[in-house]
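User: I want to check something. If I give you two sequences, will you return the structure for each one separately, not as a complex?

Assistant: Yes, each is folded on its own. Here is the first sequence with its structure:
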Amino acid sequence: MSARDFVEKDYYAALGVPKDADAADIKKAYRKLARDLHPDTNPGGEARFKEVSEAYDVLSDSAKRKEYDEARALFGSGGYRPGAYAGGGVPGFDLGDLFARAGGQAGGLGDVFGGLFGGGRAGGSAGRAPRRGADVEADVTLSFLDALRGATVPLRLTTTGPCTTCGGSGAAPGTSPQKCATCDGAGVTSRSQGGFAFSEPCRTCRGSGRTIETPCPGCRGEGRAVSGTTLNVRIPAGVADGQKVRLAGRGGEGERGGPAGDLYVNVHVTPHPYLGRKDDHLTITVPVTFPEAVLGAQVSVPTLDGPVTVKIPPGTASGRTLRVRGRGIPGKGGDLLVTVDVAVPQKVSGEARKHLEAFATALPDDPRAHLAAGLS
């Protein structure tokens, strides 16, 4: 992204969001557009996909977004006019220093406008400086057990990076960009009005300081192209539904030797028919018979590492939760939480009915007696 992008391109319009949109709205808009414009499903949407990805790269980064908003505000209001005081204005007043202070550090607004107008301190070093690649997001769906144990999954990624045909120059192989004859490579032209000098981006080269006579057929002179690749990504054990896994350096390629961006994998986990998760604990509901609940029993309960025997204490009520230490989410130190569910048979044979009736007669107390007493 060149410095002129900060004043020429409306990234908010590209994503269809207002200027005060929060990070969640920006992300939501980007994900919808990226899904609709993905080259795998929309072969004619490569250019628009690139535009949306570039806009999201800036607006999703709070530092880049602040720099972009400040640059647009200053240029749009006419606040920056290098050379306005040349030839008899305010001696010793360096606009490069002013924008350096506004940016707060090297690489701030001073570098942005220096690269755009050829003024300031370094004559536009930012436009040629290394730039970090864009961060990339992908989604993956895992089964409950794969999420617990970890899995290696293939991910198909589509990113923008330097064009492999021209090496990022934008010029067809065998040719090279030429210095713009209109602005003499400065990227800016000046005009005088009254006692002031006004500067604006060169319309011939659009502020880049160079022209391309024979554009690269691969990227149409843009220097960047959409590319697809498949990565085998390892998802660590114990990942939870909705968790985002960051893979450093696996995102978009950097520009001019800059580092690659990061890959963020949004993990979706399908439910398991028996197992559940509560923080770092695993949960399971185990049916027991009425005699087992009354008299107590030893029951076998499945776990990720094989079955374990759980002691059901005599008189256990339905819904009671027992804890098996150390059998929770792998590597998280959690437990297995076993909830007892007393199974009530739907049909009872004649012999079993006789025993149940005898058992009911032998019960010493009415378990509902306290209810009536509480209302008297």
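And separately, the second sequence with its own structure:
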Amino acid sequence: MSSAIELIVEGYARLKDRRSLEDLRMHRRRLAADLKAWKGFDCRMSIAQVEQDIAAIETGLETLGPVSG
């Protein structure tokens, strides 16, 4: 079964919406950094999930090819 992020990425990729994918990746990167900075909590599972999300987003960006311009 596809995860929610994979379905979102698929939709943006189908629409060729690079900007939304890049914004989504930046949000996930900030979230990962925030989770890694937490002290006193075990956030390893959440960090792993966010990193999987980032990988899925990067795969979607790769399908759009290189940035032109």
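Because they were folded independently, the notes below concern the second chain alone. The two ends are 36 Å apart (CA to CA). The chain has one domain: 4-62.
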